[in-house]
Amino acid sequence: MRVAPARADCRVVADAAEAAEHHRIRHAVFVDEQAVFAASDLDAHDARPDVLHVVAWVDGRAAGVVRLFPLAAAADGPGDWQGDRLAVLPGFRTARVGAPLVRFAVATAAARGGTRMVAHVQQDNRRFFEHLGWTARASEIYVGRPHVVMDIALR
Length: 155
Known about the structure:
alpha+beta, single chain, seven-stranded mixed sheet, Aminopeptidase
């Protein structure tokens, strides 16, 4: 039997409390659960003023997150955006919260003038992204793990 998708309300963090939820989920998934990072998954991108941190809320609870940012300076005009740090808490994975997060990131980057979004996707998630219209471009080792570089046109 298929589980009906949850109604995920995805939005860019609006305050410090929502930012804390965003970072809590990333830490729970990438540090505690997957051990992709030893102590923290925070990096220089998190301090950039043009980075958007997104949280998916399900029934008032933070369920998943994604981060996105332009790859070129705004003065260069429309261009590539990167989506990364997609993370969904284990209790919400069967509710299919990941797809709304990815779609929100793609729509948000497009609305801000992006023409293409790229991502370094863990190999196990390749088919999920392909189902959402992304194209695999190259395999790589990223943060010590097999990933695939994928992209999607935003216009």
